[in-house]
Each structure stands twice: as C-alpha cells, then as structure tokens.
Automatic annotation (TrEMBL):
<dbReference type="InterPro" id="IPR029045">
    <property type="entry name" value="ClpP/crotonase-like_dom_sf"/>
</dbReference>
<dbReference type="GO" id="GO:0004176">
    <property type="term" value="F:ATP-dependent peptidase activity"/>
</dbReference>
<comment type="similarity">
    <text>Belongs to the peptidase S14 family.</text>
</comment>
<dbReference type="GO" id="GO:0004252">
    <property type="term" value="F:serine-type endopeptidase activity"/>
</dbReference>
<dbReference type="GO" id="GO:0009368">
    <property type="term" value="C:endopeptidase Clp complex"/>
</dbReference>
<keyword id="KW-0472">Membrane</keyword>
<dbReference type="GO" id="GO:0006515">
    <property type="term" value="P:protein quality control for misfolded or incompletely synthesized proteins"/>
</dbReference>
<keyword id="KW-0645">Protease</keyword>
<keyword id="KW-0812">Transmembrane</keyword>
<protein>
    <recommendedName>
        <fullName>ATP-dependent Clp protease proteolytic subunit</fullName>
    </recommendedName>
</protein>
<dbReference type="GO" id="GO:0051117">
    <property type="term" value="F:ATPase binding"/>
</dbReference>
<dbReference type="Pfam" id="PF00574">
    <property type="entry name" value="CLP_protease"/>
</dbReference>
<dbReference type="InterPro" id="IPR023562">
    <property type="entry name" value="ClpP/TepA"/>
</dbReference>
<keyword id="KW-0378">Hydrolase</keyword>
<keyword id="KW-1133">Transmembrane helix</keyword>
<feature type="transmembrane region" description="Helical">
    <location>
        <begin position="88"/>
        <end position="110"/>
    </location>
</feature>
<dbReference type="InterPro" id="IPR001907">
    <property type="entry name" value="ClpP"/>
</dbReference>
C-alpha cells in the first residue's frame, strides 16, 4: 500500500511578478538582496547565489530584505547554511509579513531589523509532499520533526527565549508586531520609529 502525506493548504508557488533586471542590478550594486513570496527551492537558490557573490566581492554588510510569509524548510536550511558560511555580515530586514521557515533565515542573520508595520508569524513550516510506502512516509515525518526541532533551537538561540516557548509559539502560529518581535528578541531594531 502506498500512502501520500500532503501539507495543509495550497502548494507554494513562485511569485509571477519578477523584478526587472535593471532594478535587480541597482539593488545588487547597493549590496541588497530581496526575497519576496514563499520561500521555495528556486527562490532560496537565487538568494543564496546573490549572497555568495556579494560575500566574494567584499566584507561590507549585505542587506537581505524579507517579505516571505511561508516557506519550505529545506529551502530555508539551504539559505541558513549560506548565511552561516559568509564572511560579510547579513543584516536581515523584515519589510512585511515574514513567517514559517523564513523566521529561521531571520534568526541566522547577524543583525535583525523590521519596519514598524512588519509582522513576524511564528508558525510551523509546511511539510513537503511525500509519496511512498508507509515506512517512507514515517521516515519523512521523522525527518520533518527533526528539522522543526532544529528550527526551534535556532530561534531560541537567537532570541534567548526558552525552547519550550518557541515550540509553543510555533505550534500556535503566534503573530508578532515589530514591537513585540523587539521585546521577544527576534529583531534588534525597528526601522521607521521616531
């Protein structure tokens, strides 16, 4: 018998409004990488390539703009590994709603900022669809739980919050305002406050 494990909700899709090349070039010249829409394998790969290139060009900080409301754990870990290996510091800026696996990317950044009206949703990331036997589905579920635990540990280390609180907030889907994220320890500074 073959079972299929499906995540709740519609599948993650790539945004259709691609950024014009001239704008990408201007942002790149300013050492800025923009990550919008769901965090998927292709979007994480593009962001990782840009970050690694900017890292190779010099030690100045790189600004990573985040507006990623949901995402794939595997894609997030690929990007987190790049952030961990960079010599140039990455300053992540939450510009809109950021949540799910992308919160791990925020936590892995050297400096974490948010615009005043940004929101951060602590929520369990989607699990990838798995086809296969019951044993294969069980193994994939076990792997997902290990990755979710690693995400909670990463966020706990960045914020100083107890792991149990992080796990509870991820499970509940807690949404933080920029001010709440500052108090929580998830951001270091709010942009746009007087």
């Amino acid at each position: 018998m073959r079972l299929r494990f499906e995540p709740p909700g519609p599948p993650l899709e790539e945004p259709t409004d691609a950024m014009p090349p001239w704008l990408q070039e201007r942002l790149f010249d300013q050492r800025m990488v923009v990550l919008t829409g769901p965090l998927t394998g292709p979007s994480a790969t593009r962001a990782a390539a840009a970050l690694m290139t900017l890292d190779a060009l010099g030690p100045e900080p790189v600004r990573l703009q985040l507006a990623t409301p949901d995402g794939d754990l595997a894609a997030a870990y690929g990007l987190i590994d790049v952030l961990d290996s960079m010599g140039a510091p990455v300053h992540a800026v939450v510009t809109a709603l950021t949540g799910g696996a992308a919160v791990g990317v925020l936590a892995a950044s050297a400096r974490r900022l948010a615009y005043r009206h940004a929101r951060i949703r602590l929520s369990e990331p989607r699990a990838a669809a798995v086809n296969g036997t019951a044993d294969e589905v069980a193994a994939a579920a076990g792997q997902y739980l290990r990755e979710l635990e690693e995400l909670a540990l990463r966020i706990a280390a960045a914020t100083g919050q107890p792991r149990s609180r992080i796990e509870d907030d991820l499970s509940a889907g807690r949404v933080l305002t920029a001010e709440e994220a500052l108090d929580y320890g998830l951001v270091d500074e709010i942009i746009g406050t007087k």
